[in-house]
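Q: Give me the 3D complex with nicotinamide-adenine-dinucleotide.
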Amino acid sequence: MLTKTKIQAIDCQHFINGQFVDSQNKKSFENINPATEEVLGTVAEGGKQEVDYAVAAARRALDGPWKTMTLEERSKILRKIGDLILERQEELAQLESLDTGKPFSLANSVDVPRAAYNFHFFADYIISVGTDAYQQNQAALHYSIRRPVGVVGIIKPWNLPLLLLTWKLAPCLGMGNTAVIKPAEWTPMTATVLMEILKEAGVPDGVVNLVHGFGPNSAGGAISEHPDIDAITFIGEPGTGSAIMKSAADTLKKLSYELGGKNPNIIFADADMDEVIETTIKSSFINQGEVCLCGSRIYVERPAYDQFLERFTARVKELKVGQPFEADTNVGALISKEHYDRVNSYIDIAREDGGVILTGGKRPAGIEKGYYLEPTIITGLDRNSRCVREEIFGPVVTVIPFDTEEEVIMQANDTHYGLSATIWTSDIKRGHRVAHQVEAGIIWVNTWFLRDLRTPFGGMKQSGIGRTGGMHSLDFFTELSNITIKL
Ligand code: NAD
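A: Here is the predicted complex, encoded as structure tokens.
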């Protein structure tokens, strides 16, 4: 049974200087529904020329009415954008689900409400914060002012398309910048609808521009190289981040990176096992495991290992993998054939490395089309297996027992990634102690994905550069000038 009547998918054009346009050469590509393998529509394929037009419009808009708007006026526009997202919530959630293969229920309860909240949060935040001021005895008064960075390139992944785009766009606009956005090629629809919303909310033409396309030698590459783009905020894989950094080096752009993760989920035997199981189901398999924060390496203290595995496996077997628009679906389809094959290749690696597939590891019976994979639990691997070391970004977790705190901290840190970690224990001292030693930018104790948008968000090691959230976002999207007055 369908949750709601499906709406029509849309063809996606670029949005440049306030107008929807095709590519100059009329090039386009097909948008595939990962849940059915059917064509949803066409997407304009942009390249250097479209990025040039978009950047020129964004540069002009920096000096237009946007420049003289007060913070309060921009805050009002952000609030209106959030309101309009909520007015179109169901439509946006349906498009997001069609594009990504994620359950409609998830898009409708998490992705779209949070996208609206990103605008509502920054609408309030930007008018509530000040800047530094220091009086240096009777000698001088120092104070700082914020100015926009300029034209910002926003390059996005496909897993949480609207949520992550708005996470960057809201503070970017709030601080008076203009933007050129490139959504992931797999998920162009909600970004396109957002452009209508921005226009309706009163964002002046040229302030936000959208160019669809691919990465290297396409729209993404053109943004990274463009001499008139001042900063790039990128969310995606570390390898892509490295390529963008190389292209951006010649013009010394300011960069913000939110990259991949291979996040440890550390479960001590004294933890509340009911809470552990319910939260670990989510932290492992929500959004088909295609969330950078998913805890894909599960470490369980040996006295609780058998009990955890038995209860966790039983609950995972109850998850329903199926069509995104069926009301009781827990796990939808993976994003693409290419990604589906890649995730499956890790299950082959696990088998070759002597791993035991406790559940999953295959296509669900009875589903012929679409990129579906059963939630998969693997045991019996050691820390050298690529399955334990590399980001799989799918519904696959490894579970490994441990005996001591020192051992689990060493294993948790034995990775190039450092995005997030979860620690489960009823010993609060141990919670703090372990949290201080785990190398990750975001650490949860006895919870997961509990967010306050004022807090610093981002990864260490190869999981990112810089932080977003609250003041950290404002710092990236502004240049601070310090002014000193001699007294
Ligand atoms: P990706 O790096 O393959 O692509 C991301 C974007 O970069 C896409 O829009 C793509 O077209 C573009 N791109 C690719 N090559 C480019 C190039 N050479 N120059 C410019 N642009 C280029 O990532 P993905 O597969 O879309 O997303 C999955 C990755 O994103 C995972 O590693 C995941 O952990 C990470 N991610 C991180 C966070 C976070 O907050 N840290 C959030 C979501 C996803």
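A quick observation: The CA atoms of residues 417 and 462 lie 5 Å apart.
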